[in-house]
Amino acid sequence: MxxxxxxxxxxxxxxxxKHQSTRVPGTRCFYYTxxxxxxxxxxxxxxxxxxxxxxxxxxxxxxxxxxxxxNLKHYFGTVASSSKWDWSDFYGVPVNDPDVRYVGSYxxxxxxxxx
Length: 115
Fold this sequence. Notes:
Layout lengths: L1 H22 L4 E5 L4 E8 L2 E9 L4 E5 L5 E9 L6 E2 L6 E2 L5 E7 L2 E6 L1
Antiparallel strand pairs: 1-2, 2-3, 3-4, 4-5, 6-7, 8-9
């Protein structure tokens, strides 16, 4: 089961890195595993930040509240449905994911929740 999760995680990170490097050349993405959440780091020309937290048990993708805490109100689908999202902007936007709904925005950032 954990190997299937790691395969899905890699399938999420590879397109994320490709899309982010089109925005900022030289961008790389990597992850650290944790007890409850895996952290997705974005390295843009030496500026490293945590962008996403992924729940180990469910595969749900959340935004980062800080470097150490996920923001459970910022939902970005699951690693299994990550191919249904467009990751070319700063945060992901659902393209054809029927499992999420739009709930609001703050500036340019849009928030989604599971249906």
